[in-house]
Each structure stands twice: as structure tokens, then as C-alpha cells.
Amino acid sequence: MQSIALPEDLSKLTNGYNWQKITFGLSQSQTYLLSGASFNLYIKIQSRTAAESLHLEKERLVWLQGKLPVPELVYFGQDDANEYLLMTEIEGVNASDKSYESMLPQLMQQLAIGLRSVHEVPVDGCPFDQTLESKIVEATRRVEQQLIDEEDFDSQRQGRKAEDLAQELIRLRPETEDLVFTHGDYCLPNIILKDGKVHGFIDWGRAGMADRYQDIALAIRSIRYNFGHEYVQTFLDAYGMRTVDEAKVHYYQLLDEFF
């Protein structure tokens, strides 16, 4: 059972649940699975001094209801130290699980189907600007405030300084953006499958209008990391991208070093 001091109203909502800490994935939040009642919940607990507020994810979950299979918001609140986000569970197994090794071509098909469904959400009226203009401003702010974990850089950028990467980010900026609604962190742990098909998506804090390569680039990196480079083209073919813009793939993977 958890020993975290929760706000009183949140404590009542979670009373009687068993708490299990989630250790996979990279996040500034402490994430727990709450089980033992008629349905499971997930809770994220994060310091109010973190680089990204959980309020960003809360807003997106509310906006996405009825548009995509995403968790439902149960509670959002703050106290002097932390933010708290309580939401329903998307049942299933995340796409990075080794149980999928026997069905990798089918998994790549499902990842592509899932990503197309995200990119088909209309951007008209979308209040979440994740275009390069806003992302570069935020990346620059994080560098200036020394919020970048240089030890967490991808292997090809290990040993580099955040200031150097920020200059590269400006120098290599693509001239055009193919704007769609994006997940923002379309990595395999954030896609949930059930009975061999995409059942929903989690971790929406960076979602919004951006170039589709924001998602394509991170999906490619995640597929390579989890199952090998040989499955990347299977995913791209299923998505409908016969030729890939390698410069944009590189750029959006570079951009992710700041987030």
C-alpha cells in the first residue's frame, strides 16, 4: 500500500485500492497502477517543479474524449509539493512487451493503424500548439534554465552539450511542416493492444498540432530499440510512407532530446 500523503479528496477516491509502482518508460512522474476494486485506475504523481506540468496531459485527455481511445480523467489536483492525475486504465499490454516477438509484422501493422487514427483527428480548433516555433522556444528555455539531462541523450549524441544541440536545432530546422494532430511521444510503451489490436493510447502530455514526423521519428526509434531496425520499413509501409525523409527523422529525434 502506498505511503504518500495525498490530498483528502484524492485519498477518498483511492481508498481501498492496491498500489503497484510502474517502472517501465521514462517520465518525471511516479506512476502507479491501482487495483482491487471493480475497475483499475492509474495515478501519476509529480513534483510541481518538474519541467512539464501534469496539467498539460489533463487538458489533452479532456479534449480527446470521444476522438480517440484515451484514459478518462477521474481527478486532477495539486498541493504545495505535487500534482496528481488520476485516470482510468486502458486495458491491454503495451506494444513494447516481449510477448509480441512472435507476431512482429502484425504488431507493425497495428502501430501504423494506430498512428493513422491519431493523425486523422481534425486539427481545426485544436488548442494545443506543438509546431516547431513553440517547441524551439520551449527547448531554448529549458537549456537556459539547465533543465536538460545530458546523460539521457541518445547514444549518437552522448557527450554533447545541450547548448550545442540547441544551436543544431536552429541550424537544421526544416523549411516546411506537414501539420497534423500528433501524439507527441508515439513510443511503443504508450500504445496499448488487446487481443492483438490497438486498444488505446496513453501519455498525452505533448500532444498537439505538429509535423507528422514528430510521431514517425519517435516510432522509428522505439521500434529499432525494442525489436530491431528490420521492422521499421514494415511499419512505414503499413502507414503508407514508401519513402522516408531521413533529415526530418534525424531532426525530430534531435528535438526530443530537449523533452
From TrEMBL:
Keyword Cytoplasm: no
InterPro entries reported in the protein's UniProt record: AGP_Transferase, Aminoglycoside_PTrfase, Kan/Strep_kinase, Kinase-like_dom_sf
Matching SUPFAM superfamilies: Protein kinase-like (PK-like)
Domain of life: Bacteria
Coiled-coil segments on the chain, per record: none
Keywords on record: Antibiotic resistance, ATP-binding, Kinase, Nucleotide-binding, Transferase
Residues in Aminoglycoside phosphotransferase domain copies: 24-245
Family in the record: Belongs to the aminoglycoside phosphotransferase family.
UniProt name for this protein: APH(3') family aminoglycoside O-phosphotransferase
